[in-house]
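Pasting as-is:
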Amino acid sequence: MFKDLFSLAGRVALVTGGSRGIGRMIAAGFLSQGAAKVYITARKAAACEATAQELTAEYAGQCIALPIDISTMAGIEMLAAEIKKREPKLDILVNNAGAAWGADFDEFPESGWDKVMTLNLKTPFFLTKALAPSLRAAATPEKPAKVINIASIDGIFVNPLETYSYAASKSGLIHLTRRMAVRLIKDHIVVSAIAPGPFKSDMNKAARDNEGEVSTRVPAGRIGTDEDMAGAAIYLASRAGDYVVGTTIAVDGGIVYANPGIKGDGWD
């Protein structure tokens, strides 16, 4: 009954923003559980290609670089067309590509609003829409296709940092996950989300460069590891997560739901 519960054998996945950070963790996790092909996107071709080569060398499956900027509708359509040209179906889509912007309230620029809202909220919706035919082709009642949106705990609670568009976009993505789940479950496509806490990445430089300090603010006493992020994504992508519909899972060491409270101007 429980054989291969977390297996991704033979499945084809696409992870946006997959060349580094959380996207790379997820791509590696999928390959570790037998995914046949994991496509990764990134704006920078060299980094995307390098990651694809490294992961292909490490695992039995194939990691394939598609260096495309998906912050525009043209880029979204280009990526969807490339997947459709290469694959008859797509089992898993991970909407991970994102951006952040921090600035004082009185100085916050329109460019910082539009860039973040576009990539973090608009792109996941329209990319999922563009790839819906490929996801539907893979989906069956017994083996649904999966869409996993990467949100943030900043969309659940208020971070002391002044990242207005980032917080709004991630909160919006959490609710968008629920709205998309309502529609797409009818097509046997399961939509869910992960809200990461502190993980080492270029976006979370505090966790990357000041691990000891950040760890003191996490109830679990440490920042997230590659295995923590990969494990959550594997769970949602595999048979184990087939009945988890519209949910956002906080993978944060307890910051949101096991924290005694916020004191002063930060996490204590």
